[in-house]
Every structure is written in C-alpha cells, then in structure tokens.
Amino acid sequence: MPRFVAWQTQYGSRGLQIIGISMDDDPELARKMYEKQRLNYPVAMGDDKLGRLYGGVLGLPLAFLIDRQGKVQALFRGEADLNLIEEEFKRLLRP
Amino acid sequence: MKIGLVGRSGTAALLGFAFLSLLPQIRAQFTPVPTGSASSIPEAQLLKPEALVQLLQTTNKDKPLILQVGSHMLFAQAHIPGSEYAGPGSQPAGIEKLESRVNALSRKKLIVLYCGCCPWNRCPNLGPAYAKLRDMGFTNVKALYLADNFGADWADKGYPVEQGY
Fold this sequence. Notes:
The complex is a heterodimer. By secondary structure, chain A is α+β, with helices and mostly antiparallel strands.
C-alpha cells in the first residue's frame, strides 16, 4: 500500500489513477484501513457483480492495468513484482 | 474487456490501476509471513484438493462438513458444492459465526475448512478458524491446502464448483 500511495503521488499528474477495491464483507475494514494508511487514492467496495465483470475473482490480490482507452492492458495475479507493474504503467504513461 | 473505471481529466485520459484485495491480507502483503496465517496449521492436518475430491466421491454417509472461512464475496464467486459459508476467520464476527455453526456438533465430526483467498502463507482466515475449532475440542479438523488460491488450485483443475450464495 505505501508503494501505491507513492505511485499516486509521483505519477498522478501524468495521468495515473490508482483505485483500490476491497473484496471484504465489511466496509468498516476498508474505512479504517483507508484512514490508517492515509491512502491518496479512492477505495471502493467490490461485490459479486463487479467480480464477474472482471472475469471472476477466485483469488486475490488481483491488479488490472487499464489504459487510457479503458482497455485492460495487463492483469497481475497474486503477489506480483511491484517493479514489473511500475515498468508496465510507466510504459503506458509515455506520451 | 472494457472496464468503466477510466475517466477523463481535462483533455488527458487517465490510466487506471485497479487493485482488488482483502484488507486483512493486504496488511501483510509484501511483508514477512504474518503470525496466525494458514502456515500455522500442522502439516498433518492438511488435505490436498485431490484427496478431498476423492473423499467426496467415496463417502456415502457421514460426509464431512465443509466450511468456507473466507469472504462472502469470494464464496459467491465460486465455492465447493455442498460447502457452507462460515464467515471470515480473520474477523471476530466470522469466528462467532463459525462457533455457532459447529457448536452442537460431535467433537469427532470431520470438518474441512477452506479459504483460497490468496497464497497459503498469506491467508489470514484459515489459521484463526482452525485454532478456534481446535480450542473448542474438535479432533478431526482438516484444512484444504490451496497453495495459491481457490481459482488456481481448485476451479482451474476442473474440480466441481458452484456459484451464488
């Protein structure tokens, strides 16, 4: 999470928007975490419908990299290499 | 696949990075293995997916009680047919729900717990759920060993799944 906060700070002005989606049952968990971690990006509660729209969520975490046209460019399953994710979105941020 | 998460800010479209997770899990992600994770369950009590499939095919009476102790949303996405949602083991409310489900059962009853939310050593739910049943005196509790998650180690292998609540 600290890395996501840093990314939002560093790359937000270039067009990156991080969106956290909690798949927990209790929104209070998300609220507490949002405040405790001082997140600088929005966090929404996921639901069954959202999970299906994303192709089915049968394991977490999942990270979707979505380009400026709204197309999913990459899907990272599990504990993905954060450096790799950063390289991928930096490539898409290039003008 | 098109996702409606990308908006426009002025003239520049945004690049979106959507991260789906469980918060008790994400707290521990990229950090040392948390205390109380599924790794705390003794190896002798683990049940491999193929062994559970075989058990379900061969057991006629006295079938095991199969309880999913992860998030309800993940249960709705897919679960083992016949299994019941018992509440997330990482949360006090989940442990209470689990306790009330099993309280009247014989302490010798075969109970299989599973989650599959995330990689085994990161799962925040199974360890506490297993410990609760052990503390209640249950002597025949198994934990389904899903190394990566429910999708990779169960659904993708063609084992039976059900969707919905």
